[in-house]
Amino acid sequence: MCSGRYYTARMHSVRARRELAILVFLGLMLLPSCLVRKRVVKAPGTNKRETRPLLTATKEELIQRIHAVSDPIVSFTMKADMSPSIGSLYGGQVTDYATITGYVLFLRPNDIRVIGQDPVIHSTAFDMVSTGNDFRVSIPLKNQFFVGQNDAPANSKNKLENLRPVAFLNALLIRPPDPGTFTVFEDDTNETRALYILMILQNEGGQLTLLRNVYFDRYTLQITRQKTFDSKGYIVSDTRYGDWKPYSGILFPSDIDIQRPQDGYEVELRVLDMKVNAGEVTAAKFILNQPPGAHVKELSSTSTLKPGQPVPAPAASAPAGPHIPVAAACCQDTRR
Questions:
Q1: Quick check: is 191 in a domain?
Q2: Pairing state of beta strands 144-149 and 182-189?
Q3: Does a structural domain hold residue 197?
Q4: Which of 6, 55, 171, 283 could be joined to 258 by an S-S link, Cβ 3.0–4.6 Å?
C-alpha cells in the first residue's frame, strides 16, 4: 500500500514538473511569428575517428580549469537566440517552437533573470527571476504570475509548474566543486570518444551520492558537458557546451544546449552578444513585480491568489525599471 502511494505521488510529481515550462512555451505559441514542427529524436550515433593528438591532465588540473572559467565571472548580460522544445528528449516525439530572442542577466552569487522576447513584435513571452531561493515568473500573454521557492516540492497538480529560473543558472554556470564534496576522475577514451569526466559527490548519511559530472574534451581540454543528478541518481539537467569564445576577455561557450529530461523540455541558446563584469548589473534589475490584474499562483502552497491581489514585494527595495528595455540596453547586438 505504501509503495503504491509512493509510486502515485512520484508520478504526480513528474507530471507536475512539466506545467510551468509548457505554460511558458504556450506564450510562444500565441506569438504571431511562432512556427511549430515535430520531429523524432534518434539514438546517439558514433563520431568519426579523430586523428588529433590527445591531451593529458590530472584531476587537480581539471578542477583548476573549472576555476579558470568560473571564478572571473561576477556578473554578465547576454543576448541569445533561444530555441525551446518539449517532449521525450531521450527518444520519441519532440515539439520544436520558433527561435525567439532571449536576454539573460546574472549577478553573483545566485541572481538570474531570463526574458524571452518575440523578435518581430518585441512583446514579452515570459520574464523569469530567481534571487537566492525565491523565484517569480511572469507570462503576460496568459496574464499569469507565479511566485515560489526554488526548492519547493514538485507536487503541483498542474502541468509544468516546476520550471525554475535557477535551472538556467545551474546550466549556464559551471561551478568548481564545493568544499566538503568529493571528486573522482575518469578517463573515458575509446575508438568513438575521448573524454575526461570529473565526478563530484557528497556524503549523505554515510553514503556517497553523485551530484554532478563535468566532461572535458581530451583534444582541447575544454568543458563540453555538465550533468546534474537528483538524490536517486537520475539526471536532472544535461547541458552541452560548444564554440567557446572570449567575451570581455573571459572565455564562455557561445553554443549551449540545456536538456531537462524529467521536466520534458530543452532549450538551445546561441549567444549573440555578451558583456561580462561590465558593472551594469545591479540588484534593481532582478525585481519583477506583479503586473496589475495578473492571476497569481503561489507554488509553495496550494492556494491561488485572486486576480489583482498583490503578492509580497521582492526583498530588494530599489525601484524596478523597464523590463525589456533594460535587458536590451545591456545587450545591444553589434552585428551589421
A1: no
A2: unpaired
A3: no
A4: 171
Cα–Cα distance, 84 to 97 (Å, whole number): 6
| Per-residue confidence in pLDDT tens, the chain, 336 aa | 555 554 454 555 555 556 666 666 656 555 555 556 676 665 444 455 667 899 999 999 999 999 999 999 999 999 999 998 876 666 666 777 788 999 999 999 999 999 998 767 778 989 999 998 899 999 888 898 989 888 776 554 444 455 678 889 999 999 999 999 999 999 999 988 999 999 999 998 889 999 999 999 999 999 999 999 999 999 999 999 999 999 999 999 999 999 988 888 889 999 999 999 999 999 999 999 999 999 998 876 444 444 444 555 554 433 333 343 444 444 443 333
Q: Is residue 217 part of a domain?
A: no
| Local structure of residue 304 (DSSP, 8 states) | B
Q: What is the DSSP string of 146-171?
A: EEEETT--S--SSTTTT--THHHHHH
Domain total for the chain? Answer: 1
* DSSP 8-class letter at 305: P
Is pTM beyond 0.85 here? no
Whole-angstrom Cα distance, residue 266 to residue 250? Answer: 26
Q: Give Cα separations from 3 to 8, 9, 174, 235, 262 (angstroms).
A: 9, 10, 37, 22, 21
In-domain check, residue 51: no
The residue range of the domain holding 22 is 2-42+74-174+244-330
For residue 47 the three cell numbers come to 563520431
Q: Which contacts (CB < 8 Å, 24+ apart) does range 197-204 have?
A: 198/59, 198/62, 198/63, 198/66, 204/231
3-state secondary structure of 158: coil
HSE value, Cβ hemisphere, 13 Å, CA-based, for 312: 8
